[in-house]
Write a structure and sequence with these properties.
The protein has 242 residues and is an alpha+beta fold. The chain folds into three domains: 61 residues, no CATH class; 74 residues, no CATH class; 85 residues, no CATH class. The strands form four sheets. The chain has a three-stranded antiparallel β-sheet. Strands 4-5-6 form a three-stranded antiparallel β-sheet, with no helix packed on it. Strand 2 and strand 3 form a beta hairpin.
Amino acid sequence: MGTHVSLGSFDTERDAHKCYKEADKLYHTPSITLDNYSRKIRFLPMDKAVTILNHRDNRIYIKTPIYLRTGYFSYFMKDGRELKFDNDDLFYYSSHRILMRQGHLYVNDYGMQYSILSRFGIKSFAVAGKDYTFANGDPTDFRYQNVIVVNKYHGVTRIEKNGRISYQAKIHLNGDFLIGRYSTDSKAAVAYNKAVDYARDHGLVKDFIMNYVVEYSPKEYAETYTSVHLPKKYMDYIDSLM
């Protein structure tokens, strides 16, 4: 098909030849599909098989294990798991392999490891089902309309009660201290940051995570910061540690 596809390296010339024959069979046997190809290969790596099937069916060569669908694409992990993404992400994942460690999906980029959830604004400390959810219940569907970010700021939790939504700011020390409940998650995030600043200013050494509040300009952030009042119970506790 006019494209050179590297199939990998093998211990023997015989194994390399068998891999080549399997690849050739995939290219020229339309009845072999994503649903049954794993039963047809023994020497050809799975990711190479997906690349070949995509090249055969869609006439586009992509070096990562991506198969183009109508309106989206699938990325296949080594264990055969299919992840679904919007076409907006095609260029990125065409050049970045998705890896998994301890159940977390990530890519290597410029020598650093980044969770694939970071592309949705989901922080590394986020908890599935609490801080983000999947609209259709499928945790392998990473299309943007399916990923719902519930709590995007550290120390902030969305609360729904009697049909009303508020945002609760808490800081964890020896236990959880409630800083307050606010009408927006951005204001709650500022309240959390102010609680962290108070603790640090009074000598408490802890690796706190600070929030970068994207909704506010520097002036708006300063005004909100000033308007937030920390609970006396919290300040008394910090003062008692001195």
